[in-house]
Specification:
Length: 83
């Protein structure tokens, strides 16, 4: 990003590149939460799958990484205690 910030990019390249972090983060979350190596997990097998939805709601409402991380950890802790 430091290298690209010094270049004069056309508007369409800047528009494309602004979506890269979201795409990478979505791929990482999907792989980590929804799969276990080679197979898909179901909600009854994994607490992380269930915790994804309240955490995603907090992320969309607040747009704050810190609040989202705290919410995700809290939800996982509550689910672990309840299980």
């Amino acid at each position: 990003m430091v290298f690209l910030s010094k270049l004069k990019l056309p508007w369409y390249a800047k528009k494309f590149l602004q979506h890269v972090p979201l795409a990478v983060m979505t791929a990482l979350v999907a792989q980590s939460v929804l799969t276990d190596g080679e197979r898909w997990l179901s909600p009854d097998e994994d607490l992380e799958w269930i915790a994804l939805f309240p955490t995603l709601a907090v992320a969309l409402l607040t747009r704050s990484l810190l609040i989202t991380v705290v919410a995700g950890i809290s939800v996982m802790a509550l689910l672990a205690l309840a299980a």
